[in-house]
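Because showing beats explaining, we let one protein speak, sequence and backbone structure tokens together, and leave readers to judge.
___
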Amino acid sequence: MPPLFNRRSEIGLSPSLPPAPLALAELLVRVRQTLADRFPESYWVVAEIADLTLPRFDGAHCYLVLTDQHVTGRGAQLKAQARATIWSQRFQQLAPAFEEQTGQSLRLGLKVMLRVKVTFHEQYGLSLDVLAIDPTYTVGELARQRLLTIKKLEAKGLLDRQKELSLALGPQRLAVISSPTAAGFQDFVHQLGESPYDFAVALFPASMQGEDSPASIRAALDLIRPRRQQFDAVIIIRGGGSKTDLLAFDDYGLSAAVGSFPVPVLTGIGHERDEAVIDLAAHLSLKTPTAVAAFLTERLARLDAVFSGYAGRIRELAAAQVQDANDYLTRLARYTQQAAQGQLDQQRDALQQRIRAATVAPRAQLRQQFRQLVRIRHALPRAAGRALAGQQRRLRKFGRLLEQRFRRLHRRRREQLLRQRYHVQLLAERVLHRAELRLAHATAYRLPEAPAPIVQLLGSDGQALPLEAATPGTEVLLRLPEADLQARITARQPSPAPALPL
């Protein structure tokens, strides 16, 4: 048999004959024979299902991809992966037995212990044939994961946080997370409807089974959180199911969301086995949705009974207080009547005394008033004469004062008028003098640049009249370049010397 690999020629030696080429099929046949000789038996392996293709019809096979991830001593991440096959007849035997003992079917992410045999095919490569599955390992692994989830919640204080919340005395505003078509939700609503109390139920639909169940319930909790002031409690219910369906309620993320929720959460999942992790994190856990409805109804019934007891006690206390008040009012009425009668007698005696005093006092007062009127009647004429004489003296004195004041004011006003007239005359002379100066300056002063206008003086006969012949009172005609003007000479003045304007 030729070697499995080509050898290099040694240094200094001449190359030998070229090695004979090896067909790929023959090489892979040798690999298969070597693996069969080296691994003739089957082996138990622990791996995680990374990919899964279940049979779609009878007679089909189940294909898996198994992975194993672990950290080496040096801290490196090591990952191993291999394809595995469960043939059709063996799958029909292994799958039902595994689901019956573990409560769940094969799914992604599940860690399992398999008995496999190493096979190699020239066309399909290395593969593992699954011969058996140990369900006890998977059950132990699920229990271990559940215990780890509980420890993580306990370390973060999420197992007791819901217990510290106080549930309302009469929780009637309920936010229910369930599937709208679930029988458990229908039983819950029916049970509440039969109670004599009014419940406001708001349904937040969610998927209650399958791999997406935890995410769906958490999404419903996120919808309730902004409206938490509108609800007294959150109810998570479903109508039972297989062990596989109930594994979703052991999810750490869902349990942490329930444990940290700010509103009390009540669960009624409908399981018969041990409590799910979500039950441990909730405020109160009950077995079934009907039990949750019964608990709420009984809580309101107890509250109603307490209120009824309080109402009876209040009625008793009120009746006792009314009786005490009635007795007090009776005593007060008797005391009031006696006091009123005593005051009435006192007022009657006082009135009699006043009546007797009223018959004597008015007569004395009348006589005194009469004497005062007589004195006033005799004194009135003398007082009127004295008052008249005094008024006449005041009037004469006031007349003399008015006369003196009038004379002083007349003299003062006359002096003011004289001074004003003098000032007016003085101002008029000054204004007239300034006007004469300006007129004289205006008639004598001519601008050197502009030529003087040509004025022709004509007499009444239309002939030119010299200036020397123009005497005051003469009617003349001034012929200007633009027009002719009729004028009369009123006075003559000598031509003053030209001077600068003031």
